[in-house]
Amino acid sequence: xxxxxxxHQPTQIVFGMPTPAEVVAGTALELRSQPVPPPGWTPPWxxxxxxxxxxELELPTEPMTVNMGPSHPAMHGTVRIVxxxxxxxxxxxxxxxxxxxxxxxxxxxxxxxxxxxxxxxRLNYVSPLLNNVGYALxxxxxxxxxxxxPERAQYIRVIVGEMSxxxxxLTCLGASAAEVGALTVFFWMIKAREWLWELIEELxxxxxxxSYVRIGGVAADLTPDFAPRLRDLIRRVRQTLGxxxxxxxxxxxxxxxxxxxxxxxxxxxxxxxxxxxxxRSTGVPYDVRKDHPYLVYDRFDFDVPVxxxxxxxxxxxxxxxxxxxxxxxxxxxxxxxxPGPVQIDDPRISLPPKREVYNTxxxxxxxxxxxxxxxxxxxxxVYSYTEGGNxxxxxxxxxxxxxxxxxxRVRPPSFILMQSLHKxxxxxxxxxxxxxxxxxxxxGGECDR
Amino acid sequence: xxxFLIEHTWLQALIKMALLILAFVMPLASLSTWAERRQSAMxxxxxxxxxxxxxxxxxxxxxxxxLHFVADALKMVFKEDVVPARANRFLFGLxxxxxxxxxxxxxxxxxxxxxxxxxxxxxxxxDPASMCxxxxxxxxxxxxxxxxxxxxxxxxxxxxxxxxxxxxxNKWSLLGxxxxxxxxxxxxxxxxxxxxGAFLIYGTLEPHAMVLAQGPTPSSWGIVxxxxxxxxxxxxxxAETKRAPFDLPEGEPEIIGYFVEYSGMRFGIFxxxxxxxxxxxxxxxxTVFLGGWQVPWLYPDGFHLMGWTLELxxxxxxxxxxxxxxxxxIVLCWLQLLIRWTLPRFRPDQLMRLGWKQLLPASLIxxxxxxxxxxxxxxxx
Amino acid sequence: xxxxxxxxxxxxxDLPARGSxxxxxxxxxxxxxxxxxxxxxxxxVPPRPATGEGIKPSIADALRETADAVQEAVRELTGKTQLAxxxxxxxxxxxxxxxxxxxxxxxLSPRPPSGPQGSRGPSPPAPAPAPGEPAxxxxxxxxxxxxxxxxxxxxxxxxxxxxxxxxxxxxxxxYFCYHPGLSSPAVCRQCxxxxxxxxxxxxxxxxxxxxxxxxxxxxxxALLARQQMLEFTLVNHPVDCPICDKAGECLxxxxxxxxxxxxxxxxxxxxxxxxxxxxxxYIVLDAERCILCTRCIRVCDxxxxxxQLEMAWRGDRQELVVAPGQRLDNPYSLNTVDVCPVGALTSxxxxxxxxxxxxxTVDSICPGCATGCNIEVHHxxxxxxxxxxxxxxxxxxxxxxxxxxxxxKELRRARVAGARIGMGKGMPGQVASxxxxxxxxxERLGRICDDKGTVGLVFGAQAQNEALYALYKVxxxxxxxxxxxxxxxxxxAPRPExxxxxxxxxxxxxxxxxxxxxxxxxxxxxxxxxxDLGAGVLKALWMVGEDVPIGAEELPALLPLLxxxxxxxxxxxxxxxxxxxxxxxxxxxxxxxxxGTFTNAKGMVQRIRRAVDPPGTARPHLELVGLMSQKLxxxxxxxxxxxxxxxxxxxxxxxxxxLPPPDMxxxxxxxxxxxxxxxxxxxxxxxxxxFANARG
Lengths: 449, 381, 696
What we know:
The structure holds three protein chains of three kinds.
Chain A lengths: L19 H6 L2 H5 L17 H8 L6 E5 L11 E7 L2 E8 L7 H5 L8 H5 L6 H16 L7 H29 L3 H22 L8 E2 L2 E2 L7 H23 L3 H7 L7 H6 L4 H6 L6 H4 L20 H25 L17 H6 L1 H12 L7 E8 L4 E8 L5 E7 L1 H7 L1 H5 L4 H11 L3 H5 L1
Antiparallel strand pairs in A: 1-2, 2-3, 4-5, 6-7, 7-8
Chain B lengths: L1 H6 L1 H35 L10 E3 L2 E3 L6 H11 L10 H18 L9 E2 L10 H4 L3 E2 L10 H21 L3 H32 L4 H8 L7 H4 L1 H15 L22 H26 L8 E2 L2 E4 L2 E4 L2 H27 L7 H30 L4
Antiparallel strand pairs in B: 1-2, 3-4, 5-6, 6-7
Helix pairs in contact in B: 2-11, 2-12, 3-11, 4-6, 4-11, 6-7, 7-10, 7-13, 10-11, 10-13, 11-12
Chain C lengths: L4 H4 L18 H13 L11 H30 L13 H15 L35 E6 L2 E6 L4 H7 L23 E4 L6 E2 L10 E3 L3 H16 L15 H10 L16 E2 L4 E3 L9 H10 L4 E4 L6 E4 L12 H5 L5 E3 L12 E6 L8 E7 L2 E7 L12 H4 L13 E3 L8 E3 L1 H17 L3 E7 L4 H16 L4 E6 L21 H8 L6 H10 L2 E7 L10 H9 L3 E6 L4 H4 L3 E4 L8 E4 L5 E4 L12 H11 L12 H11 L32 E2 L8
Parallel strand pairs in C: 1-5, 16-17, 16-18, 18-19, 19-20
Antiparallel strand pairs in C: 1-2, 3-4, 3-5, 6-7, 7-10, 8-9, 11-12, 11-23, 12-13, 14-15, 14-20, 21-22
């Protein structure tokens, strides 16, 4: 199967808004002036049939508007795409998000800095610990204690974060496979995810809504047999990934469905603000962990996989490889992790031990004020960004000096990615919408907040 | 009594049809709903449904959850039957019937055992041609058109899905119906052409005659003489059943399917029709490529293998043939489950390309080659 | 009627005669405090003239003078000019404005810090302007001194203490016993700072500033000393936070978190003292929690002028007790709870009922009397839980009276929650929707207007200015149509026994001045209303507010008169006998449920803010008047009726001066301040107390 268009050229078909890249290059108007669709254009997936179906194409057809979602099996109940289709070809798409809007940013303004952790769990709910870490780093940056976080806590954050990244990718790829009909792959990946979550549950007390990270450290130290269990887990996950690859990577049906579908050029991706695996699939090797190392990421040896065509298969493959790289990081981290405390030693940030709380007025006041009034974060504003499951997860927080944020804005990677979804799906078939949407990996909780 | 039956073939046919459908096809279809779940569960490291049980006093019949299909059926029957507000009620109701009826009817041409010689049940049948004066064919309708009848009826089945998609007054189901009609019509061509080679070899369209033509020697079965046709037909027939990887008309995460608006037993009938089609597909493949009810080296008088002989009475031979026929079908059903839970779904363009550009030319080549070989072997007659 | 005798009534004889030269009963306490002070190594000072006592005669004089001046001016104005209906524009003379300003400043400026007099520089002139405020150059030039606090230069008036100078320079210093509204005894030692040139650390709240003084408020030595003082204080403090009502707004907690944060170093038993001591009708003491700052003693002495609390025992056994033969029952007693830095004194009304950090705060004005004390309404989930005073040096300083604090209970008592249409005459009437009731009322009123029957309009002194302004517009438009209109100002009956020249006014209506202004000079009071009713002049009466200035015993005489009306419309907050006489009852929102303004007895227009939702279908007076005027066809160009802010802006544009002081108000006359100088103020989003950053 040949690719309908070289991946690095902007697609000819113009629907919806001009891209920033087009605006910058001054080509937006020119492109827009083309008739829609341009004469002689056929959807990529029917190109090879052009000669045979020419007569059929001349039959008068009428575009149909269908509502994909929010009540649609592939739309997670959280997004709606109004598709204008001609037969199976998508002619126009209107992507509408917001069905899972939970007022995260407004709720955060009424909660103490620490109380926001449970809300961050519900942002990208398949990798809650990455959100926890991202948020904690933002608050710590504003507090100016980034350098004072105990090393062990930093390693633990890396470990749980990378475990979450694996669960995130497993969920994304598994769900996408399920949506193209490979339900078995989905269950295998979910099985692997469940192993990871069992270990995370043992550590944090919850599978999904962990709220494990704290400002100034983490809530608790690793469990005694965490390291051997993690090593065993990595071995088993590797094996599962191999099995999955054997089912998908050489599967003609799967490859045909993913290869060359929904190509995006690196220029476009950068112009649209893509980050994360989707950006790397286009060949841009940007990874916050490498380019702006935080925590102790600069101490690990890992690679940033990139794609070459920016199509659905590249997004799939980049995620597969990232899981392997995450496991490399995990193996190194579990070797390097030093002993020590997991919470910063500062009574204005971390809670006193319970013995002090119940027996001394000092401990009681300390605990009381931290719980009720919250940690007092100095007035100011800060933007902190980490590599989340889907890309750069940013927190822009403003403090007025009280125990709660004046503003807590999230830069959710999938929201940014969703902006350009219509560019990816227009021109394809209805059946292509599903894997493309799956590979964008829009997480409603994060996108809609 | 027996004479009466032999004389009145219509009554005979009715009884055989009832036996075949009620005693074999329907239970097997129901069981395969359970089997599908357990099969997929095993493949996916899950348990699958294993809880349904029957409690009679202190006796608990769990049976690995087989009773789930009973629970399913009860649920389907008692669910609310919703008809969308602006749907065409008549066609909406007709569609499930149109979906299941052709499949069940076509079972009439499937031979499920050799002819039963009346009066010689417990004898070894050394010379069937002379001994069997009056027989009861284990086939509902032995008609010369045979497979043409099947093709004719199978093309009716497309109406069920298309009408369901159209009558539901839902754009998604309409898309599903359109996908179904294009898919089924495309693959019917391939399906018919792929069998053409077999027809040439067997020199008949009548299934019973085809089974007889293959004989009890596996080397002369269709799968050996027509291996390419076997794979082409299996692929096309699975596409015809609209099951994964060809479940585009359903395409659950994409377009939700032509029966999106159906609920209760109406949906149940579509569901069942799918499984009946699976069984029917297995029956056809068995008949054409796996020697039908033929058991390797089992002749009417018993087993003959490399000079070694085991004589068996006629009834025993027929029973063994019945059982083996059933086993062949069950194995083929299982094979379909395996495929269904392994492969991802096609995309419509891939499906069309596969059908028209790969399977169709291949089946044409198959016909040409087979015709040439047949012509050559027959000495140009 | 709405007085609340069982809670707040106090025999008038208990009140010391203000301005009298009789020695206050607080002398004993002064010596007591002085004794403690001598123990702390500071020079013993003679019993200072209790600041409140020293100033109050002059307040009374000023009051009397200003009142006379204003009344004189008013007599002149009213006598000479026939005021046009409805509002006359009166330009106050500069002299009058100065007099009014002087009055308010004299009355409400904070007490001067009374340092050891003569020890450093001349004694401060009293009253000194508040720290941090620009000097009011109008009356006297202020002697400014410049000093350095942690290297920052700051200029403050001479006589300011070092603590205030530090705070003004933006340098935080912890303190317990200092309070800007009280004298400074320097008993807590929590505000120790280093002064260059002095061998020992000095208590900053007790040290007056000197020129070129160099203060090191954050030097390690000062910080260590303050930490150690805090540790001393914490040694015997019980581990009570989870059950303490002050938790969340506790100064001890705040200082520990801000300044100390160290672990405990003690492992011996804490000293035990009485836990639940009944000090008075409203207050309970937990002596263990007390940190002996004496703020409460000073509140009683200096604000209420009654010596009811004092210290007993000494060392770590020292504890707060009521003075011999006394109870803590002065009308300002609950201010002791506010000033208590810890949870030692708790209000019986509030304790154990609501956690303070859950409360949301909204700035408002006390509706209890014409003084218009500035308050914060603390509410949670649609219920008001307490009112606390808010600093406003021009009105109430830092204080409010106990009776005012309990006005929130009115919000839950006998409310009219839905409209009713009925026969009146005491019959209950039928429940109706507001639209229906308004339509009915407007239709009947319209018919009476068409017949040119006399319509009476009651400007309730409990209603907000904006609603009354809308009613004023109705009066104007009706008068234009030739309908005879009579206006009355009614409110709750004055209670002269409340009058104490501190904060409590005899007029228990928050907006008498505003109602009087908006009703116009021709407006009558209850006497006129009674006469008009008796004469049968009035055909219809429309009351905005249901209160009438008579007691329950006189009410039966009024009711039959009301029955003579063809139509009585009442916009009622509370269900009363009067309300039950009405043909149409419209449910009105109370003061805490609306945005608006009140004009206090001094003519200051102050903003009230919506804290909670009104019950049932009750709506603000303004909205009800707006609906009525719409139905009456008088709403052309009256779009401002839609929002209180618009109404206010319209009103300030239209009415630029006040009118003569109302007869009903207390002896404090209204200074001449028009709406033109009033501002609507910013809207406040509800802030939870734990995030308010101002408390504990």
